[in-house]
Amino acid sequence: MRERIPVVVQRDARGRRAAARGLWTGAELVVTLGVVLLLLVAHQLWWTNRQARAEAADTVHALERDWGGPERASDPAEPAQDTPEPLDVDDDTPVVGEEQTGGDGGGRTAAAPAPRRSQAYAVLRIPRIGLTAPVAQGVSKRGVLDKGYAGHYPGTAQPGGAGNFALAGHRNTHGEPFRHINRLRPGDPITVETRDAVYTYTVDKTLARTQPGDSGVIAAVPRSNAKPYPGYRTAGSYLTLTTCTPEFTSRYRLVVWGKLSGVRQR
Length: 266
Known about the structure:
This protein is of the alpha+beta class.
């Protein structure tokens, strides 16, 4: 029987070095990509929040200085709460209604002039979730929402006025002022402060999920366009808070509604 002689094939040293360099380069690219992604996540989840919250706090302080110091809302059932400012409106309708309790005994408040686009002109305070945020005209991302502000939907009522005072805010990133509005419960006070008055709303209803195009939730008489049509059927003075849901998505909208329960002149 013929004996087989084993043959040893030696790889080319250059080929081995080239393969090693290729693997090393690939590993470096993967690590670099991972670092970039981590930096992007950190920027969105940490830096934008820090930056927006700082800007929002500075704006609140500037408004309070301009008004001569913060006021406290008058709530008939609870101790006075910190007050936020009013949102923008397009008419001069005075504040009237059976649910109002005017601090001057008249129960009427003159409407403030409409603010400029992206102008911060009110302060929103929600004690339940520890929120104090400026309110600005409009709902643009760059000019309003990404600054950590609550944005007033153009065309909706002003604070305390007949109709619906509707606001939008980020739930995640850029200050995320509305992140925890899902924790609000019926009876929780929300105050809105302007240069001239403090308005107290009381949380009444929550709509856990609806489509982004459900414009009925910010109508003068807020009522969802989606079955079973949650909301209201009679005119009044309402507050609406809207934000994205679930968290870290924009697939649906979360809505909280409140009713005007008190007005105090500054």
